[in-house]
Design a protein that fits this description.
This protein has 148 residues and is mainly α. The chain is 52% helix and 0% strand. The longest helix has 23 residues. The chain is elongated and about 90 Å long. The protein starts with 11 loop residues before the first helix and ends with a helix. The mean pLDDT is 80.
Length: 148
């Protein structure tokens, strides 16, 4: 990490970082509105590290990345060449997710067809849900060979 001298000019990226620190301090309540505005105005007027340092001297150091607690409690990765233990899927609603959702659509259309027939006094219209049953049957039969 390079050592910065007070007389050296800083970059726009450095200016953006300091502006972010000032915004964070304002959001945390460490700076009030007039002081935040004043420091921000000075930030865009200064050019060297020596002029920049007094703007953030009394603020806490920059927060660094912290690993979330969920990840900290996770088991370490297996050694190379080993595989993690795979737990069986005990969620029956997850099996055949695509076919399960499509089955609901087909059944809904069959019910609508049935209600229309009842509403017409038993004069059933052409069985149009067949156009959904055909792809449903193809999907269902195609998925049988892949199941374990």
């Amino acid at each position: 990490m390079p050592q910065y001298q007070p007389y050296q000019r800083f970059t726009e990226a450095d200016r953006d970082k300091i502006a972010g620190r000032l915004r964070d301090a304002f959001a945390d309540g460490r700076l009030d509105q007039p002081e935040f505005s004043s420091r921000l105005d000075k930030l865009y007027a200064v050019q060297t590290y020596g002029e920049l340092e007094p703007l953030v001297r009394d603020l806490p150091p920059v927060r660094t990345y912290q690993t979330p607690e969920v990840v900290q409690d996770a088991k370490p990765a297996p050694a190379p060449g080993q595989f993690p233990e795979r737990k069986p899927d005990n969620h029956p609603h997850r099996r055949g997710g695509a076919i399960g959702g499509f089955t609901g659509v087909v059944l809904l259309n069959v019910v609508i067809w049935f209600v229309i027939g009842l509403g017409n006094g038993g004069h059933w219209p052409h069985f149009w849900p067949v156009w959904l049953l055909i792809p449903w049957a193809i999907i269902a039969l195609g998925g049988l060979g892949r199941r374990r």
